[in-house]
Amino acid sequence: MADIISTVEFNYTGDLLATGDKGGRVVIFQREQESKNRPLSRGEYNVYSTFQSHEPEFDYLKSLEIEEKINKIRWLPQQNAAHFLLSTNDKTIKLWKISERDKRAEGYNLKDEDGRLRDPFRITSLRVPVLMPMDLMVEASPRRIFANAHTYHINSISVNSDHETYLSADDLRINLWHLEITDRSFNIVDIKPANMEELTEVITAAECHPHQCNVFVYSSSKGTIRLCDMRAGALCDRHSKFFEEPEDPSSRSFFSEIISSISDVKFSHSGRYMMTRDYLSVKVWDLNMENRPVETYQVHEYLRSKLCSLYENDCIFDKFECCWNGSDSAIMTGSYNNFFRMFDRNTRRDITLEASRENSKPRAILKPRKVCTGGKRKKDEISVDSLDFNKKILHTAWHPKENVIAVAATNNLYIFQDKIN
Amino acid sequence: MSEEIDETQTGETVVGEQKEIDNKMISPEKVEEAKLKTRYPHLGAKPGGSDFLRKRLQKGQKYFDSGDYNMAKAKIKNKQPPMAPTEKAEITGDHIPTPQDLPHRKPSLVASKLAG
């Protein structure tokens, strides 16, 4: 039975798409090469490799169950024929090597073709094994295990632009690792107060700048983002920049802080902007302007009048992700009822689409959806009260170069492409 | 004279209603907050932030006897042949949890809200 997908990530070329699930498994899809023989399978993604990345563990010293759920996958840039990715659960990060094998040696001296050892006294001649072609086999092997560096739950990993280091962030700390070294990591952010009673905010996401290897950002549960420069000091507790949108104190409610909590932060490909996702909106920030975002997009503003019930069923704590397209001209994020939203930054147009098998056939063009907020409901519109809050799209990914998107709807993965003319 | 008093009273009532309507139009959030407060009156008495944060940091905490847990784990390991795939071992008689049995459930905040 397919498990709930917990992370989706394209690699740098977009040829590979990795998903992690709640059962600790990683499934990698590969894009088919376009060929004249099969025009209809233009760029289809098929399963390339499946492996068990993490197992459930129990820390009985702390009476803590450690889930095997994969929280994040991040690809490394490709340097040789093999592919490398980092996958993490709440406590341990693993570096996996995915390699192809299409040849095997035949004609060993000491063993038969089926692996059984030959009786050495029966061997009368020496032969040189030869490499013979075989059916393609994709192997995944763990190359590094980065463990025991996080007391709290890892929410983010991010590969640095130097391709040698990466950071991992949990609720209160951020560590910097070298990809080759597993027994040591540097703590670069620590917001744990001396007295835990004074705890007011936690780290919710962190990311390395795409070009400047000394810069990274981290977001908080209070809706703020801190940009840090690792050249300033070994411990980056003092930020270089502090991003926060001023709040109107008269509009403050019990829910204000909860819905301002940032669930995801992503730099633009250009490195000039960053995007944050809070419960009801997506905001684009110019790194040169700290006092407010330059763009704000409402994802599902109609939920503001449902906050009481969303708090009671815990949905208000759902962590939605967001992503940029390759050219940074569009952004995408998920919502409820298997809806996801795309915003064009230039035209300011937005669209709501649905990822479901019932409402769309393969290769059919997706129909835009609309939520009716009150008054008369038009045909094809859905009223807010009919939305299924169990069908949430938390994880989406956009191909780095083309208009291909991957959308995870609970335990199903949908891949959508621009229509072919 | 009494007529004047009546008019004033009516005037105040109208103003009161207008304020209520204004509030509803201005802030659906505040309406939702009021709803929540009537259902959970002692909520928000402590700083809301630390409740959620503490719950978040404690995710995965399960309380039971680690000695019994290890005994049960060892028992199951002995029963299973080394190459067998991980199956959910049926535990009859002793209800000591093992890693496979621990429910994968995110603890809901509602229970703790009611417990206050």
UniProtKB/TrEMBL annotation, chain A:
The keyword RNA-binding does not apply. GO terms for molecular function: protein phosphatase regulator activity. GO terms for cellular component: protein phosphatase type 2A complex. Keywords: Repeat, WD repeat. It comes from the Eukaryota. Belongs to the phosphatase 2A regulatory subunit B family. PP2A consists of a common heterodimeric core enzyme, composed of a 36 kDa catalytic subunit (subunit C) and a 65 kDa constant regulatory subunit (PR65 or subunit A), that associates with a variety of regulatory subunits. PANTHER family: PROTEIN PHOSPHATASE PP2A REGULATORY SUBUNIT B (PTHR11871). This is Serine/threonine-protein phosphatase 2A 55 kDa regulatory subunit B. It comes from Clupea harengus.
Automatic annotation (TrEMBL), chain B:
Keywords: Cell cycle, Cell division, Cytoplasm, Mitosis, Phosphoprotein, Protein phosphatase inhibitor. One of its GO terms (cellular component) is cytoplasm. Protein phosphatase inhibitor that specifically inhibits protein phosphatase 2A (PP2A) during mitosis. One of its GO terms (biological process) is cell division. Belongs to the endosulfine family. It is found in: Cytoplasm. Its main location: cytoplasm. Coiled coil: none annotated. This is cAMP-regulated phosphoprotein 19a. It comes from the Eukaryota. It comes from Clupea harengus (Atlantic herring). One of its GO terms (molecular function) is protein phosphatase inhibitor activity. Residues 1-25, 78-116 are annotated as: Disordered. The keyword Translocase does not apply.
